[in-house]
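Feature request, filed as a ticket because there's no other form

It would be nice if the structure record came with a short human-readable summary line next to the tokens. Right now we just get the raw output. Example of a typical job, pasted below so the devs can see what we mean:
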Amino acid sequence: MRRKSMQGRAVLRVLLAIVLVAAGALLYGWYDFSRFSRTPLHVTTQGDSIDIARGTGLRNIVGELRQRGLTSADPLYWWLLAEQMRVAGKLHAGEYALEAGITPRQLLANMATDKVLQRNLTIVDGWTFAQLREALAKAEKLGHDSATLDDAAIMQKIGAAGEAPEGRFLPETYAYVKGDTDLDVLKRAHLAMAKTLDAMWPTRDQDLPLATPYDALILASIVEKETGRADERPRIAGVFVRRLQDHMLLQTDPSVIYGMGAAYNGSIHKVDLATDTPYNTYTRPGLPPTPIALPGKPALLAALHPAPGSELYFVARGDGGHVFASTLEEHNRNVDCYQRKHCQ
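Raw output as currently delivered:
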């Protein structure tokens, strides 16, 4: 009986040891799994991402992460984490950011909620449409469907057939994701400008020499190119409005330069001011036929709410600002002082 009792205790000790080892293994496994789920991936490249094709399963996703050295964890841990989060089989295709500090749990959550990587393209106030096209061509992960199209074909593609493209796209920052195209961005920017004009036009000052919202767009583009200073925009708009009202030539150099196209080499001469083009406001009265740039909201606001006064002239000071004058005599003195450096 004593031998049997001793044997029974030995068996119990062995069983207890097995239970303890198993419990320890489970506790360690749970600890290691928890550590894995909250430990950041090995992201070393700023702006890195992972692109998940449609139909890609978790196994292949983990395989790519391991191949790129972003994780060394056992694929079983990734499967357990997906099951715990109830996202297994619910991961969306797309491009996902791999930012420094991102954990496996965060990455799976992004994939499950379709939180794809967004990139931004900023249309700068005062850009021409040609500059906008250049920026779109350089944008990463953006489809370049417009690359082989001329301006007229682009406008047709975005639903604005017959419109001249200059000035028609609102300068703002536009987010896009992989799979979007340059035409998608242009559609949004075109719609944004149309909505902005529709909202601003009814609030314009009375008695402006502007017959249509498009006239306001043209004037705003000139204001945009004449100054980058917020405090000067309404004042410069006021000068041009009064010149239009008095049937004076606008005589604005940026419009002449726009009409010169590729012939402009960085400086403007008297012969350029005398050479007639549709955009030469020294030889042709009124507004030019189209905008000369993409005006931002502040320039549009200035064109529709110009500053009152009697000023009809201005000349660049050389420091980014301008000197204004109400008479030609005063203006000529300013030109002598600030352009010819013959100050009295």
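Something like this underneath would help us a lot:
The domain at 39-116 is CATH 3.30.1490 (Dna Ligase; domain 1).
The chain has a mean pLDDT of 91.
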